[in-house]
């Protein structure tokens, strides 16, 4: 009988034959790879989110923004996009690993449902990724947070050899230092600085700035400041100086380590508060930009153009002067080292000033105006209104003044502000002090044509509104939406304008952005 040739195995016998070989190890190896990729994906997601929500990415982004500024690469948050890309890869790894795992178990039992299961997995992971990304700060918020250090450098860069900050951000002739600008710039810097790790150059800038301010005081007995040189002393300048000095004293051990230096600074705070209290009109419970005039009636009439003679019947109190005086007094009351010196000396005056502001709010316009005594006004001073709200919110945070703020008119103010059509506002749509309101009877020197920046102050006001527990949830969400609308408007051309114009404009933006987006607490 011929020897039987070996036959080929049938398809049914192949698995049995392979059972003795090495093929079964491949599914085990594949399973280990799937598991490892899944763990890697989850780890990437978790670690990236930890870095984001603990503020590590924000701190790195601040340094990246400074490098981008030096290289003229704009303010695009490249670091944020990289992080979002890494998180996306994490979700992709996780979803792919989960799909392969289920494919090897559940899907093999139900082959027809394999695509449905895969679709559901990727839909679930995609939804989780979108929710994860939405929990991050918006890119516009990240840009503004990262811009703070750049702006601090720019403000510091305007400091001259005498310690004063120049009125414009560029260097050259016709750009003098000014006490008004210096006080605003120093206050903004201190609001934006990381006081856990202050830089020596910032401390030196602050110390030199106040040395300049004190060197520029007028002669005895007033020892105060006007716009320039010997011009008449102004309440709002003394308010900004006091506000800045009090905030510096909050970190006095760093800025003035010597006890005698700190005591000198406290003495100047006391002097400046007493000095601008001479501008307080007790019958009005508010402040005039200037100290009360001593001229007689004939001199008063002669000091104004005939067309403006109707101003002679109006009180000299003004909104901005009162806001700045109140803000300075509130900060002096808030900061412990200053409050210990002043006790409750000004508490009643603060309450009265708050009452005056609430009374002078125009419900017809939904706005505060620079001169509340002039009739027939129609302009909406959005920037002045937002800044006044910011100060009143700060007053309400101090228990002694909470009731003074919490009047029915305050509710009206907040509701009116929530109704503002922010989407229709361009960042350059600022209101200005009119020529008529520049005259304060009976003073011959008119006020400068001040610009009331609406965007930065509205950013601060809407941030307060978004955290206001007295408002409904829908109102708080509306306020938060307006914060995001304003923040999104800060783009390339806006940065170019802010960072190349007036120092006051950069300072007010820096101050408000720092309050709206404070540094993460660690």
Describe what this molecule looks like in 3D.
Strand 1 and strand 2 form a beta hairpin. This protein starts with 13 loop residues before the first helix and ends in a 6-residue tail after the last helix. About 4% of the residues have low confidence. The protein is elongated, with a radius of gyration of 32 Å. 60% of the residues lie in helices and 2% in strands. It has 22 helices and 4 strands. With 522 residues, it is mainly alpha-helical. It has 2 domains: 125 residues, no CATH class; 273 residues, Alpha/alpha barrel (Glycosyltransferase). Helix 2 runs antiparallel to helix 4, helix 3 packs across helix 6 and helix 9 runs antiparallel to helix 11. It has a two-stranded antiparallel sheet with strand order 1-2. A two-stranded antiparallel ribbon has the order 3-4.
CATH class of the largest domain: Mainly Alpha
Helix content: 55-70%
| Chain-averaged pLDDT | 84
Number of domains: 2
Residue share in β-strands? under 5%
Instruction: Write the CATH fold name of the largest domain.
Output: Glycosyltransferase
**What topology, given as strand order, has the largest sheet?**
1-2
Detail the poorly predicted runs: 12-22, 295-302
Shape, per Cα inertia axes: elongated
How many helices does DSSP assign?
22
- How would you characterize the largest beta sheet? 2 strands, antiparallel
State the order of secondary-structure elements, H for helix, E for strand: HHHHHHHHHHHEEHHHHHHHEEHHHH
Which architecture name of the largest domain does CATH use? Answer: Alpha/alpha barrel
